[in-house]
C-alpha cells in the first residue's frame, strides 16, 4: 500500500467513525513507513472536517463521540511509534455556573474538546463558585470553562473570575466563558481570556489560548 | 461616508457602504451554502442595503405591508425580573395581558407560567384554567397559551430519565437514545393533558415555543404532541416556534412521517410542522454576536425567505433578542430592530413576526 | 426576549398591524385558521365591507370598530369589551371563537 493510500484510509476510517478500521489504518501507515506525526495530521484533519460538518448540522454529537474514539484508537497505534510521546493538548475544567441548571451546550463543548485531544474534567451544572476555585487548585487545569445560558446567571462567570483573583491564582489558569447569554463584549467586560461562541469556536479558542496551531 | 450600524452583540459600529455590501453578500452566501437554499437576488441585496443605510434612526414598512405580530414568553416580558426579558412591573398576569392588548397594540397575546416550561403547568392546571378564563373574559385579541417543551426537565436530576448527553459522553449511546424517547413520550402525555384542559375553558391557541432546544427528540415530541392535540381539540390553533436554525442531532435516528429530523433547516421544519397540524410556524435564525448586523440580517432573511416560499401555512419568524438578525443584547437597539423588522417583511415576505 | 420597548413596541411601530387599534386582532384570527397574510387581509376586509388599506389605518378602523361595536383600544362607555366584542367579531367574520362557543353553550343562547 502506498503512503497516500494509507493516509487516505486513515482519514476515511475516522471520518466514517469506524474505530476498528482506524486502528488498522494506523497500523498500515506504520507498515508503509510513514512518519507517525504525518499520519496523526491526517487523522486530525478528519476530526476538523467532521467538526465543520457538525457546525452545519450535517454531523451530530454521537457521531463526533465515536469519531473521537476512532481518532484515539489510531493515535494509540501511532504514538507508540514515537520516541517521545506528546502529552494531551491540555487540561480543561468545565462547568455551568451557580444557579444555572442548563448543560446541553456545555455538554457539546466538552465532547468536542475531548475529541480535539484535550483532557476534559466536567464538574456538572449549578456549580458553586467556591467549587470552581477548589477544583482549579486541586486539578491545576490549563483552562477553566464557565458556561451560562441566562443573562441572570452569567454573573456567576464574573464571580468565578473574581474568586480566582481573590485567591491569588487567576494568573495560573486561562478562563473561557460561553453559553447562550454571553457575548464577546461580556467576556471582555468581566476579564475572561476568551469567549466561545459555540462548540467548534470554543475548541478553536482553547487551542489558541494554549498556543496550539490547527 | 460611513453608516452607523451594529455588531451582532449590539455594539455600535461604523461601516462604509462597500463594507456593508460585502457583509450582506457574505451573509446570504453563508446561509445559502449551509441550508442549500437560494441566495438573495441582486435586487434584494440592494434593498437590504438601502434599509441598513437609511439615515433615519427608525425605519418602517411601506403602508399596506404591515404584518400580524404574535408574541412569545407569555406575560414574562412585563412581569418577570430577569435581565434578558422581564422589566419587573408588579402586576397580575391578567393585567399583563391587558398591557399587551392596550399598551403594546399586540395582535395576539400569550398567557404563560413563570417557569415557561410545560411540565410544571400540569400540577397547577386548575390555576392556569382560572387565570385563562379571566383573561378570555377581559380581552378581545386572540389568547395563546405558551411554554417550552424543555425536555431537560424530564432528565435527572429534575426528571425520571437519565441525562442523555452524559450517557453519550460515556459512549452509552443506545441508553441515551432510549432516555430521549422516554422523555419525548412523557412530554406528549403532559402536553395533551394540559392543552385539553385549557381548551375546555376556551383557549384560542397553543404556542409550543423554543422547540428543538433539546435536539431532535424535542422536535419529535412537539410534532407528535401537535398531531394528538389537533385530534382532541379540533378548533385549537397551534403555533410552533423553534429554538435554533437547524435541528441538533442528539438522538440522530428519530423520524417523523418518514423524515429524519436531525439537521433539518427552517423550510424543512415548516413542512413537517404543517403535516403534524401546526397552523402558524415560527422559524429561528440565530444571530452570531461576533459578526455584523448586515451579515446577520442577510443570513436570516435568506433562510426565512425560502421557508416562507415553501410553506403552506403562515410563517411568523422569531425576531427577539439574539434571533432573526436582532442583536444579542438585553435592550435590543431599536435602530437594528426596526431595520430587521422591515427587511423580514419586505424581503422575506413573512406573514408575521 | 428583550425589553418591551426594544421588542413588541419597536416591532409594532415598524411593521405591526396595530392590534385592536386597527384590525390586527381580526387578521390574526384568520391566520390562526391557516390563511396566509394576503388572504387573511382580503377576507377580513370583505367581511368588514372595507379595503385592506383601511385595516391598518387608525382613523378608518377606530370609526369602524365603534360602528360595528367590536371594541376599541380606549374606553368608550357602552361600546363592547372583552367577550362581548369577541362574540360580535365571531359573527361578523363567520368564524368560531372557542370562548364564545363555550359561553353560548353555558347560557344556552
Brief digest:
The complex is a heterotrimer of chains A (214), B (353) and C (109). Chain A has 214 residues and is an alpha/beta fold.
Description:
- The complex is a heterotrimer of chains A (214), B (353) and C (109).
- Chain A is of the alpha/beta class.
- Chain A folds into 2 domains: 3-79, Methionine synthase domain (Methyltransferase, Methionine Synthase (B12-binding Domains), Chain A, domain 1, Orthogonal Bundle), CATH 1.10.1240.10; 91-209, Rossmann fold (3-Layer(aba) Sandwich).
- Chain A contains 9 helices and 5 strands.
- A 5-stranded parallel β-sheet of chain A has the order 2-1-3-4-5, with helices on both faces.
- In chain A, α1 (3-15) packs antiparallel against α2, α3 packs antiparallel against α4 and α5 (104-115) packs across α9.
- The radius of gyration of chain A is 18 Å and the shape is elongated.
- Chain B has a single domain (67-294, 307-335), classed as TIM Barrel (Alpha-Beta Barrel), CATH 3.20.20.
- In chain B, α2 runs antiparallel to α11 (334-348), α9 packs parallel to α10 (293-310) and α10 runs parallel beside α11.
- Chain C is built from 7 helices and no strands.
- Chain C has helices at 5-15, 24-31, 37-47, 52-55, 58-68, 82-93, 98-107.
- Chains in contact: A-B, B-C.
Amino acid at each position: 500500500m502506498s503512503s497516500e493510500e494509507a493516509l487516505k484510509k486513515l482519514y476515511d476510517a475516522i471520518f466514517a467513525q469506524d474505530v476498528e478500521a482506524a486502528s488498522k489504518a494506523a497500523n498500515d501507515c506504520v507498515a508503509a513507513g510513514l512518519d507517525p506525526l504525518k499520519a496523526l495530521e491526517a487523522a486530525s484533519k478528519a476530526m476538523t472536517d467532521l467538526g465543520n460538518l457538525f457546525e452545519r448540522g450535517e454531523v451530530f454529537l454521537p457521531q463526533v463521540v465515536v469519531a473521537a474514539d476512532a481518532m484515539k484508537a489510531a493515535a494509540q497505534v501511532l504514538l507508540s511509534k514515537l520516541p517521545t510521546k506528546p502529552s494531551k493538548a491540555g487540561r480543561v475544567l468545565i462547568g455551568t455556573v451557580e444557579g444555572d441548571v442548563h448543560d446541553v451546550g456545555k455538554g457539546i463543548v466538552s465532547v468536542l474538546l475531548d475529541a480535539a485531544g484535550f483532557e476534559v474534567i466536567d464538574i456538572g451544572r449549578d456549580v458553586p463558585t467556591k467549587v470552581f476555585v477548589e477544583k482549579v487548585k486541586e486539578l491545576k487545569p490549563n483552562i477553566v470553562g464557565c458556561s451560562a445560558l441566562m443573562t441572570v446567571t452569567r454573573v456567576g462567570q464574573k464571580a468565578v473570575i473574581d474568586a480566582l483573583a481573590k485567591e491569588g491564582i487567576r494568573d495560573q489558569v486561562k478562563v473561557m466563558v460561553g453559553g447562550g447569554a454571553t457575548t464577546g463584549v461580556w467576556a471582555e467586560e468581566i476579564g475572561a481570556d476568551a469567549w466561545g461562541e459555540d462548540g467548534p469556536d470554543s475548541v478553536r479558542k482553547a487551542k489558541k489560548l494554549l498556543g496550539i496551531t490547527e | 461616508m460611513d453608516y452607523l450600524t451594529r455588531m451582532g452583540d449590539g455594539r455600535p459600529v461604523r461601516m462604509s457602504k462597500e463594507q456593508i455590501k460585502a457583509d450582506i453578500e457574505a451573509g446570504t452566501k453563508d446561509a445559502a451554502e449551509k441550508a442549500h437554499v437560494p441566495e438573495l437576488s441582486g435586487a434584494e441585496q440592494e434593498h437590504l442595503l438601502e434599509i441598513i443605510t437609511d439615515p433615519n434612526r427608525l425605519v418602517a414598512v411601506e403602508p399596506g405591508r404591515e404584518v400580524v405580530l404574535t408574541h412569545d414568553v407569555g406575560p414574562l416580558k412585563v412581569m418577570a425580573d430577569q435581565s434578558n426579558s422581564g422589566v419587573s412591573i408588579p402586576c397580575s398576569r391578567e393585567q399583563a395581558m391587558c398591557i399587551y392588548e392596550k399598551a403594546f397594540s399586540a395582535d395576539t397575546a400569550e398567557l404563560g407560567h413563570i417557569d415557561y416550561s410545560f411540565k410544571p403547568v400540569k400540577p397547577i392546571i386548575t390555576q392556569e384554567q382560572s387565570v385563562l378564563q379571566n383573561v378570555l373574559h377581559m380581552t378581545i385579541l386572540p389568547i395563546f397559551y405558551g411554554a417550552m417543551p424543555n425536555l431537560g426537565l424530564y432528565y435527572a436530576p429534575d426528571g425520571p430519565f437519565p441525562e442523555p448527553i452524559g450517557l453519550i459522553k460515556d459512549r452509552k449511546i443506545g441508553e441515551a437514545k432510549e432516555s430521549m424517547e422516554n422523555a419525548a413520550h412523557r412530554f406528549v402525555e403532559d402536553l395533551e393533558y394540559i392543552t385539553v384542559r385549557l381548551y375546555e375553558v376556551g383557549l384560542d391557541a397553543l404556542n409550543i415555543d423554543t422547540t428543538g432546544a433539546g435536539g431532535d427528540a424535542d422536535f419529535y415530541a412537539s410534532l407528535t404532541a401537535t398531531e394528538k392535540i389537533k385530534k382532541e381539540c379540533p378548533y385549537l390553533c397551534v403555533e410552533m416556534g423553534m429554538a435554533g436554525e437547524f435541528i441538533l442531532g442528539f438522538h440522530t435516528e428519530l423520524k417523523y412521517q418518514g423524515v429524519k429530523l436531525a439537521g433539518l433547516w427552517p423550510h424543512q421544519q415548516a413542512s413537517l410542522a404543517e403535516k403534524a397540524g401546526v397552523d402558524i410556524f415560527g422559524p429561528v435564525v440565530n444571530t452570531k454576536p461576533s459578526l455584523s448586523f448586515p451579515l446577520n440580517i442577510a443570513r436570516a432573511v435568506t433562510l426565512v425567505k425560502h421557508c416562507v416560499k415553501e410553506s403552506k401555512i403562515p410563517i411568523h419568524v422569531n425576531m427577539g433578542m439574539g434571533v432573526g438578525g436582532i442583536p444579542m443584547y438585553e435592550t435590543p437597539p431599536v435602530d437594528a430592530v426596526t431595520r430587521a423588522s422591515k427587511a423580514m417583511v419586505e424581503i422575506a415576505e413573512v406573514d408575521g413576526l | 426576549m428583550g425589553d418591551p420597548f426594544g421588542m413588541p413596541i419597536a416591532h409594532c411601530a415598524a411593521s405591526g398591524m396595530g392590534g385592536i387599534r386597527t384590525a390586527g386582532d381580526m387578521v390574526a384570527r384568520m391566520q390562526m385558521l391557516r390563511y396566509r397574510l394576503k388572504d387573511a387581509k382580503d377576507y377580513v376586509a370583505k367581511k368588514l365591507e372595507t379595503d385592506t388599506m383601511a385595516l391598518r389605518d387608525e382613523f378608518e378602523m377606530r370609526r369602524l370598530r365603534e360602528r360595528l361595536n367590536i371594541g376599541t383600544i380606549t374606553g368608550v362607555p357602552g361600546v363592547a369589551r372583552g367577550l362581548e366584542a369577541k362574540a360580535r367579531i365571531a359573527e361578523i367574520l363567520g368564524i368560531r371563537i372557542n370562548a364564545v362557543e363555550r359561553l353560548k353553550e353555558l347560557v344556552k343562547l
